[in-house]
Design goal:
TIM Barrel; alpha+beta; Aldolase_TIM; ten-stranded antiparallel beta sheet; 714 residues; Beta-galactosidase, Chain A, domain 5
Length: 714
């Protein structure tokens, strides 16, 4: 580190990325650089001087720099990092003074204070081993009287050439839709749903004009939080560009007593100079570092679409047997197993096994699944919810998350349980612990099917503490039942983020199993999260959410791109369909290590009518490509697909594993190589590519790439 006029510089290098923070004695720390690695001998003082701008006419005599903790008190006229109020002192226009900087393994802790406001902040910032930038802000009330906090936001300055923005929107059964626009003014996303919701995935990407999957400089940012949030991408008159991310506090929600503190969630960001895929691969690695998976992702079968609430032991066992026969490895008993749960209007909260449907409890089914069939057993829960028609609500109506002064607002015939209320928290904890102790449950599908309304149990809002109570409950379950995995499901993909990923192993990305819709949903999901945490199931011939009909190859190949499962009553499948499914499950098991441990790419076609998902093992010796023809191509021929990052001189064998029906009405002849033993070097596959047959819309082909041993001749 070196000094330039009372400024100290702190540098960190990780995964070919460099982070440089400039810390003045007076004022907030500044992000001097975040991007591809700088030479070790770079003089940071001169870099800092090179970024000092001219002073325009008509503006502040001493312009406020773009900082990591923007200060209203020093003339920052955009959104500050901290907004707070108190009765006995000015806290709404803080001016920070540096206390100290502590270096730690993954970056720095920068502490500042304002003695007039009697506030202090600590900024944790640094590069994680994945190359992802992490920052988190903590605010402390150093005074004796209360401080009400309106805003506490992490801020990430970005370079001025980033003039295009990419975001996400959606709805139930159509999550993670992507949209892009020029970024020349303020963009704001606010989420007040209590959970992320399908409409407000907490992430944004900004970059240079025209950035794409394989080209362009950009930064992607994600707030690791499962509740209300605010994301902002802003542009100032001086030319500064920055991102902000925060928990959205409801009025009067956060009040700090003397010496109390509050922290933001983590803001995670990844920089790429070569397009969106490189950004995604950093986030994927960060997710894998947190997941710490110790075994391959087992094939699921979920009973929901097979039986809904109709639980019959004979049928449940028959479905389990059919599932095991085709290669399923984990059987999940969905909604309807607990007392009084015959429809979606009653019994949430009464977490006791239904002794009418299960007179001997769940153990006979569990033993059959685990001991006789060799599969794992999973169970569905919705612990955060309560039906008004339930024993729990009749006994404790005050445990619902609602304003008692008003009529409650129902959604899906249910209310949210107030986990911030100790008695309610303890009841749910006791019921879960009792069931997990009594039964050998390997997996929990943890659902959450409605948004928060009137999130309170008294007067003040309690949305934030609900999320924190959920995290605490999940943490306690993980500590007590470490071998049990938990899935985050929330009407499909309404609660997907790195915050809850710290406690769960899988997301149900959408309630939609329509393979065509899933192609877009899963592409959006993949920008920040890896395939092994994305639940993706083979549905029946006719989708129950869209009524579309797809061939098995299109359904199964689409499901291959995530954590594969089945959402289909196999008792209705004929012998040929079961054999086809068994073959696809065999391919998944053979290549899941490539998909779930290797690097993944999204490769769109030039005409925008097709896309290829490409996974390559870390040693670059084995790959898997799924080419999907989504709609009619603009030209008579399909366009070549090029598979990146293969070893240029290594020979690879190209094998077609499965494909949708080949349409004779579109082709007089297949490509010449289609039925031959094709061996090409990596450079040819990466730079020249492969010509594929002409497919009907909503079709796909599964292609394996395997390195040829040196001893094997061409």
């Amino acid at each position: 580190m070196s000094d330039v006029k009372n400024v100290t510089f702190y540098r960190q290098d990780q995964q070919q990325k460099t982070l440089v923070i400039a810390c003045p004695v007076q004022g907030s720390p500044e992000l001097l650089y975040f991007g591809d690695v700088l030479p070790a001998a770079t003089d940071l003082g001169y870099v800092y001087l090179s970024q000092q701008a001219a002073i325009p006419q008509g503006m502040m005599d001493k312009p406020t720099p773009m900082s990591l903790i923007p200060e209203a008190g020093r003339g920052w006229l955009q959104t500050p990092a901290v907004e707070a109020s108190a009765q006995d002192r000015p806290t709404w226009a803080a001016c920070w003074t540096l206390l100290d900087v502590t270096e730690q393994q993954d970056g720095f802790v920068i502490r500042l204070e304002d003695k007039v406001a009697q506030l202090s902040v600590a900024l944790e910032i640094g590069l994680l081993p994945s190359g992802v930038l992490r920052q988190q802000l903590t605010l402390t009330n150093q005074g004796e009287s209360n401080v009400t906090v309106q805003r506490l936001a992490c801020t990430l300055p970005v370079v001025t050439q980033f003039t295009e923005r990419m975001g996400f929107y959606g709805r139930w059964c159509q999550e993670f839709q992507q949209e892009r626009s020029d970024w020349q003014s303020t963009w704001l996303q606010e989420n007040r749903n209590g959970r992320n919701s399908q409409a407000n995935f907490p992430a944004v990407i900004v970059g240079e004009q025209g950035f794409g999957e394989q080209q362009g400089e950009l930064v992607g940012a994600h707030l690791a939080w499962s509740g209300n949030h605010r994301l902002k991408a802003d542009y100032t008159a001086e030319g500064h560009r920055y991102l902000q991310a925060e928990v959205l506090y409801l009025p009067g929600e956060i009040v700090l007593a003397g010496n109390d503190s509050i922290s933001t969630p983590e803001l995670l960001a990844a920089h790429s100079a070569s397009g969106l895929n490189a950004m995604s691969q950093q986030f994927h690695q960060e997710a894998r570092d947190r997941l710490k998976l110790t075994k391959p992702r087992p094939v699921h079968l979920n009973t929901w679409e097979a039986f809904y609430f109709d639980h019959d032991m004979t049928k449940l066992k028959a479905l389990a047997k059919a599932a095991a026969d085709v290669g399923v490895e984990r059987y999940i008993l969905d909604d309807g197993w607990f007392r009084g749960r015959d429809n979606d209007k009653a019994a949430l909260g009464d977490w006791f096994v239904d002794d009418i449907k299960y007179p001997d409890g769940l153990m006979p089914l569990i033993r059959y699944v685990k001991d006789d069939l060799g599969m794992e057993f999973g169970l569905w829960f919705e612990p955060e919810m309560v039906n008004p028609d339930s024993d729990l609500f009749r006994a404790h109506p005050d445990w619902a998350l609602q304003l008692p002064q008003y009529e409650p607002a129902l959604a899906r015939n249910q209310l949210v349980l107030n986990l911030a209320k100790p008695e309610a928290y303890q009841y749910i904890r006791e019921r879960l612990f009792a069931l997990f102790t009594e039964y050998p449950i390997d997996y929990v599908k943890w659902d959450m099917n409605r948004d928060y309304t009137q999130p309170s149990g008294d007067i003040a809002p309690q949305a934030r503490v609900q999320v924190e109570a959920l995290y605490r409950l999940l943490s306690e379950l993980n500590q007590s039942f470490p071998a049990m995995e938990i899935e985050s499901c929330s009407s499909g993909g309404a609660r997907v983020d790195f915050g809850i990923l710290n406690f769960t192993k899988r997301f149900w990305a959408s309630d939609c199993n329509d393979a065509l819709e899933r192609q877009t949903i899963q592409r959006g999901f993949s920008y920040f999260l890896p395939p092994e945490v994305m639940g993706s199931h083979i549905g029946p011939d006719k989708s129950h959410t869209t009524s579309r009909i797809h061939d098995v190859a299109f359904r199964a190949g689409t499901a291959m791109l995530g954590h594969l499962g089945i959402e289909w009553n196999l008792l209705d499948a004929n012998a040929e369909q079961k054999a086809t499914i068994a073959k696809w499950l065999s391919h998944y098991k053979q290549y899941r290590s490539v998909l779930h441990e290797g690097n993944n790419w999204r490769l769109p076609s030039a005409d925008g009518r097709a896309q290829t998902q490409w996974a390559l093992s870390q040693d670059r010796m084995q790959g898997l490509a799924v080419y999907s023809q989504l709609s009619m191509p603009k030209q008579a021929q399909t366009l070549p697909i090029c598979l990146p990052n293969l070893l240029p001189e290594q020979l690879y064998r190209v094998s077609v594993l499965e494909h949708s029906p080949l349409p004779g009405h579109l082709m007089k002849a297949l490509p010449a190589w289609w039925q031959q033993d094709l061996i090409l070097n990596g450079a040819s596959l990466s730079q020249v590519g492969l010509r594929l047959p002409i497919f009907d819309p909503e079709s796909l082909v599964l292609i394996a790439i395997q390195a040829v041993p040196a001893a094997e001749k061409h």
